[in-house]
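User: quick one, sequence for these tokens?
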């Protein structure tokens, strides 16, 4: 049984930690809840005890002969603080240990995940940003808060991510342990399929579900990266901790991706942009008239986003492209690899019942250095980690080359 410590701080989002606790216990993990004194004003001790099936640790002085301020942290295999307030981030960054939770954070040698929740102004305050940067530099994982309704009528960035998303994130961290090989890196991932309007109700698009792109975003987050996810027309839960940019058309995808990739370390073009768009978009629904054929649809070519990114790459920046093909996949992919100036290209064959909308994928990874790696049919989460293994290897090789001059 994996031992998880759930730290709960004093914010209105404390009630959501009850759902997170349930997800941990129902999946077979042993959970020790360590609430702060302020947290107990939102959710009482009996609730935590009932949901965890364990006594709740609240004070350094409780059961002092067992030295709980040291024992709890040492026994933990994962610590999750949700919600994490600005106060706890500040204390953790400065090594303050004035209650049981902060003592636990200082003694834990396992991965620590902070899920912040606070008002936008508090999250964006330079003091909070500095504390977050300090924690990340030391190996802690501070996921980005979600954007949405806060307390009262306020909305903005600072909302606690959905408990299910935090749980899934925590499980990936637990699987990888302290192997945060993308810590300090900014990874941009695009996902989904773009739609090009034909009239107010119709569009040209494709069958991309966005599942592989979202799997890549979640995998990068669990490896410590700061992730910007440019998402086109998907119906998937937001990955906890990603900066999400929603787009619709290929031009919107191009504009957003070019902007956020400018300072990124890695850009992964997992989205499926529409290659063509209608030359004319009708302002009214195109009617089907009896006895007459519709006018032909004239198409314009959409920009090649990956090629634009490849041409603008900085030294040390990596570009991963995707090639979804129905035939002669490797031949077409090798040509795209060169044309787009990508470092890696992920190749898969698509068609009825293949890839789009599925939970598994079979891919071949081609490198600009001539390397080839083929993955048999695997869950898309596993494919994502394998792709990132190759990304990390190339980032490490570049770092070594730079050191050697």
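Assistant:
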């Amino acid at each position: 049984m994996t031992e998880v410590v759930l730290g709960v701080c004093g914010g209105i989002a404390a009630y959501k930690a009850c759902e997170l606790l349930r997800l941990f216990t129902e999946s077979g993990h042993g959970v020790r809840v360590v609430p702060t004194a302020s947290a107990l004003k939102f959710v009482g001790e009996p609730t935590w005890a009932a949901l965890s099936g364990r006594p709740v640790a609240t004070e350094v002085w409780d059961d002092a002969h067992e030295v709980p301020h040291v024992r709890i942290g040492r026994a933990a295999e994962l610590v999750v603080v949700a919600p994490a307030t600005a106060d706890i981030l500040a204390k953790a960054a400065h090594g303050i240990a004035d209650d049981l939770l902060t003592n636990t954070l200082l003694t834990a040698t396992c991965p620590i995940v902070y899920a912040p929740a606070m008002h936008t102004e508090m999250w964006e305050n330079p003091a909070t940003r500095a504390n977050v940067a300090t924690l990340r530099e030391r190996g802690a994982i501070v996921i980005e808060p979600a954007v949405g309704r806060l307390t009262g009528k306020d909305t903005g960035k600072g909302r606690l991510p959905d408990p299910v998303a935090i749980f899934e994130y925590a499980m990936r961290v637990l699987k990888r342990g302290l192997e945060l090989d993308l810590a300090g890196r900014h990874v941009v991932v695009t996902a989904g399929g773009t739609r090009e309007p034909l009239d107010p109700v119709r569009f040209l698009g494709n069958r991309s579900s966005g599942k592989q792109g979202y799997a890549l975003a979640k995998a990068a987050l669990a490896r410590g990266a700061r992730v910007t996810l440019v998402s086109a027309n998907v119906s998937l839960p937001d990955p906890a901790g990603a900066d999400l940019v929603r787009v619709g058309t290929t031009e919107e995808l191009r504009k957003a991706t070019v902007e956020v990739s400018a300072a990124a370390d890695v850009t992964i073009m997992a989205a499926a942009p529409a290659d063509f768009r209608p030359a004319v978009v009708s302002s009214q629904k195109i009617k089907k008239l009896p006895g007459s054929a519709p006018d032909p649809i004239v198409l314009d070519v959409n920009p090649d986003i990956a090629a634009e990114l490849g041409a603008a790459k900085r030294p040390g920046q990596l570009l991963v492209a995707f090639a979804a093909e129905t035939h002669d996949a490797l031949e077409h992919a090798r040509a795209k690899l060169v044309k787009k100036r990508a470092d890696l290209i992920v190749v898969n064959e698509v068609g009825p019942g293949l890839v789009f909308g599925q939970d598994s994928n079979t891919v071949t990874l081609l490198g600009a250095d001539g390397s080839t790696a083929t993955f048999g049919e695997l869950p898309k989460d596993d494919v994502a980690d394998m792709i990132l293994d190759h990304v990390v290897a190339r980032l490490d090789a570049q770092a070594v080359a730079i050191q050697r001059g």
